[in-house]
Design goal:
Elements (H helix, E strand, L loop, with lengths): L4 H13 L16 H6 L4 H15 L5 H6 L1 H7 L2 H8 L2 H7 L5 E6 L4 E8 L14 E5 L18 H7 L3 E5 L9 E2 L14 H20 L4 E6 L1 H12 L7 E7 L11 H8 L1 H11 L3 E2 L5 H9 L7 H12 L11 H7 L4 E2 H13 L8 H9 L16 E5 L8 H10 L3 E6 L9 H4 L3 H14 L2
Parallel strand pairs: 3-4, 3-6, 6-7, 7-10, 10-11
Antiparallel strand pairs: 1-2, 2-4, 2-5, 8-9
Helix pairs in contact: 5-13, 6-15, 9-10, 11-16, 12-16, 13-15
GO molecular function: hydrolase activity, acting on ester bonds
GO biological process, one term: lipid catabolic process
Family: Belongs to the AB hydrolase superfamily. Lipase family.
Length: about 450
């Protein structure tokens, strides 16, 4: 029987959002080994069936269908204090904490309409403050401008930088919650999603950097990227070297270029079944991957709230992607995280990373033999020349990051044109999302980041 592709997308979102058990011993079941089951089923349909089997066998007493079907009902009964920040858009979220927030719109050369949020100053500073250095914070895959703000004042780096005297700009790449528009293309159609992080780098990041510099009348800015936010920086400055002059300094948090040593179990499964993702796009006619529908955020408020017995599911799923670090996981943030994430991306972005994992190379999108000849006049996609990235770069990395592996970061370090320093996070358990949400992120990362910014 052919799979129901609406159900496929829903299951993938549920998988991402944490209703998937990797550590099931707390629930008394020892009959299932999820990773072994999934790794033995590369076929998309079989994999989805395996997911369902794992869910049913791991927690037979927990009715997943009831949770999903009754999410709206559960949502209506939850205290407002739990839901507020999970359901706010970024401007409201920022203003709730006493900070100013502006919304800016711009159009790319290929017609995408993007949104940037701006925190021009801190809580107690005059609007008349001039010549504040511009900091540009580029989010990662499936993320948005909200990621830099979720921990709140004194914890989220967006607020910390505003209070430290910086003019903070929070871009949103095409296809996410805040940049899901185009002058002519319909986001419900396949053509809208015909892009990878290559196009984000050369079309989105360029226009957003230029806009922020023009608006503030400054010549250069500080660029901080996390995960895919670092990838697009390397692509931009290697393909358009003139942008090196516009970058005062670049901070790479969890750098992603090479990925051949990535150890994330979930990403390994995605890489194994990558053709299934492309099949999903081809058959369903939609190239969107994990949009923020709001619906699963409501489920997240039930499953991930601090007093919920199922909160362990959310933390386990996050750890299965990024690495285990229970000590740094602020579980009270989980409903807020799920309210804002996933924020959407294209399947093509994910497929581009799958290609990186499989090839061990940092290069443009591989369209196959015929497609490559059409796009590049060559049978293989061209590599990105990292020595052309001459802006000053600081690489922050950690040994327990299952996505940005230390050996891949060291290879990147050797090839970039102007690395000032590589900084190993002192916490040996620090993982891929700890850069955003860790309890001690300020002491372990952000204070060190600001020290490096001030040196330039």
């Amino acid at each position: 029987m052919a799979p129901n592709y609406s159900l496929v997308l829903l299951l993938l979102q549920i998988l991402y959002n944490g209703v998937f058990v990797f550590s099931i011993q707390e629930f008394g079941s020892n009959s299932v080994e999820p990773l072994a089951v999934l790794e033995s089923t590369p076929n998309l349909s079989e994999t989805l069936n395996a997911i369902a089997d794992i869910l049913n066998d791991s927690l037979p007493e927990f009715n997943y269908n009831k949770v999903i079907m009754k999410a709206e009902e559960f949502y209506a009964t939850l205290p407002k204090s739990i839901l507020n920040e999970a359901t706010m858009l970024v401007p409201e979220l920022v203003r709730t904490h006493g900070y100013p927030c502006e919304t800016h719109k711009m159009k790319t050369s290929d017609g995408y309409i993007l949104t940037m949020h701006r925190i021009p100053h801190g809580q107690d500073e005059s609007k008349g403050t001039k010549d504040r250095p511009v900091v540009y914070l580029q989010h990662g895959l499936l993320s948005s401008s909200a990621d830099w703000l979720i921990p709140g004042p004194e914890k989220g780096i967006g607020y910390i930088l505003a209070d430290a005297g910086y003019d903070v700009w929070l871009p949103n790449a095409r296809g996410n919650t805040y940049s899901r528009n185009h002058v002519s293309l319909d986001p419900d159609g396949d053509e809208f999603w015909n892009f990878s992080w290559h196009e984000i780098a050369l079309n989105d990041v360029t226009v957003m950097i230029d806009y922020a510099l023009s608006k503030t009348k400054q010549e250069n800015l500080y660029y901080i990227g996390h995960s895919q936010g670092t990838t697009v920086f390397y692509v931009l400055c290697s393909e358009k070297p003139e942008y090196n002059e516009k970058i005062r300094v670049h901070i790479s948090l969890a750098p992603i270029a090479y990925m051949s040593h990535m150890t994330s179990p979930l990403l390994q499964i995605v890489a194994t079944g990558g053709r299934g993702l492309q099949l999903l796009a081809d058959v369903s006619g939609v190239g969107e991957f994990m949009p923020n529908t709001g619906f699963l955020g409501k489920v997240g408020n039930v499953l991930c709230s601090e007093d919920s017995v199922t909160q362990v599911l959310c933390t386990n799923a996050m750890f299965a992607v990024c690495g285990f670090n229970q000590k740094q996981m602020n579980a009270t943030l989980l409903p807020i995280i799920m309210g804002h994430s996933p924020a959407g991306s294209s399947i093509m972005q994910v497929m581009h990373y799958v290609q990186e994992i499989k090839s061990g190379k940092f290069r443009q999108y591989d369209y196959g033999l015929i497609g490559n000849n059409r796009h590049y006049d060559n049978t293989s996609p061209p590599r990105y020349l990292l020595h052309k990235v001459t802006a000053p770069v600081y690489l922050f990395y950690s040994r327990n990051d299952w996505v940005s592996a230390e050996s891949d970061v060291l290879r990147l370090y050797r090839e970039l044109g102007n690395v000032q320093e590589r900084i190993l996070i002192e916490d040996g358990k620090f993982n891929h999302v700890d850069y955003l949400y860790a309890i001690d992120a300020r002491e372990l990362v952000y204070d060190k980041v600001i020290t490096r910014l001030k040196a330039h």
